[in-house]
Amino acid sequence: MSGSDVETDSNYLTKQEILEKVSKLDVTTYIQSLWRDLCYGDSYYGIITGRDVFSYIFEPCLFDKYCQLRVYIFEQLGIIANPNINRDDMIDIYKAIKNQFIEKYMYVDFPDPPARIYSQISNFEDYMRLITSENKRSYLYIEGKNRRMRFFKRVKEYGYTLKHVLSFIKNRNTRCFQILAHSVVMFEELPDAIEKRRVERHELRKEIARVWIKKTNMNGWAVPTICAFAVPGSKKFNYMLGENVSVQ
């Protein structure tokens, strides 16, 4: 039997009122007090999500380090000793809090690409020594490469896109935002645009073939040559251009 089926105590908040407070919960404010501790633990990957933070605070596995913060959040929401809230209601409230953390918080520290690391080296001899040394290649290069690999792997494990991660960086003037925005264009938006153009051109070739066969009542022997001139990116073979025309 849910809390809505029994008489409620007017001195305490109802489940619906608590859920409304959860929807307005300022997650960042509560995390600021333990920000250094949380981010230091996940700086190896360069990303920590609201799902991770919720797990640390509300679902501790071994050491309950954030018990006081959890109790404080419950007090602010009006859950502690609330007779209007039963076990089923608490499950729904937990889910709402978790969704709020997931939707509202993500810490991102996207590492520099190798080119940016080397551009910070003003001495050309040091630059050449770092990239050509066999025994000890640039620590900045190796660690930067490894950090980026760990970052991309973690984002993939979470099922996020780089564009989704970028939306959590509010300050667009930061180095992290600019580098990640460049990666969004190169790794996500540009491949999507190329694939979209490929599909559009292929559909145009098929339309040319349909029109040719319908209007001429002939087979499609001339379609490749027509497409070679009508559709960009179709001039791949000499026979498409005619016998007396050479490809430059």
What does this structure look like?
The chain is mainly α. It has two domains: 3-108, no CATH class; 114-186, no CATH class. The chain has twelve helices and two strands. Helix 1 (15-23) packs parallel to helix 6, helix 4 (50-58) runs antiparallel to helix 6 and helix 11 (175-216) packs across helix 12. The termini are far apart.
Low-confidence stretches: 242-248
How can the largest sheet be summarized?
A: 2 strands, antiparallel
The SS-based structural class is mainly alpha
Tell me the number of helical segments per DSSP (H or I, 4 or more residues long).
Answer: 12
Radius of gyration: 29 Å
Total number of distinct structural domains: 2
Give the spatial strand order of the biggest sheet: 1-2
Helical content (DSSP H or I, runs of 4+): 55-70%
- Intertermini distance: 80 Å
Order of helices and strands: HHHEHHHEHHHHHH
Features:
2 strands, flat, 2 domains, two-stranded antiparallel sheet, mainly alpha, 12 helices, 2% strand, 60% helix, 248 residues, disordered C terminus
Q: Topology of this protein?
A:
Blueprint: H1 15-23, H2 27-31, H3 35-42, E1 47-49, H4 50-58, H5 67-77, H6 87-104, E2 106-108, H7 114-119, H8 124-132, H9 139-158, H10 162-166, H11 175-216, H12 223-230
Antiparallel strand pairs: 1-2
Helix pairs in contact: 1-6, 4-6, 11-12
